[in-house]
Amino acid sequence: MFNFYFVIIGVGSIGTFLEGPVIGWIVVQYGWSAMFACMILLSVFGAITSIRAARYQRKIKLSSASSSSSLSQIIS
Fold it and tell me: Which InterPro entries does the entry mention (predicted)?
């Protein structure tokens, strides 16, 4: 059976591998101020996506909790 753990580790390594050249290219083309603006935008994007993922997970957890409680009411 194929282990997806190695795929996840490999994908994470791609980001580390590309980080240096991408930062260097942005600094050379647009300067350090653009690099800092890019980091701020990426941080805001990461925060927004993390908040949305947490809300989605909470919604799923709450819906599964309510359906399991109704299941226990049906059984008893």
Answer: MFS_trans_sf
User: CA–CA separation, 56 vs 33, rounded Å?
Assistant: 35
Instruction: State which residues form the domain around 44.
Output: 1-75
| Phi, psi at 3, each rounded to 5° | -100, 115
Written as six digits, the tokens of 32 are 């350090």
Number of structural domains in the chain: 1
In tens, the pLDDT along 5-27 reads 666 666 667 778 888 899 999 99
- The amino acid occupying position 56 is Y
The 10s digit of each residue's pLDDT in 29-48 is: 999 999 999 999 999 999 99
With tokens 């591998």, the residue in question is: 17
pTM equals: 0.61
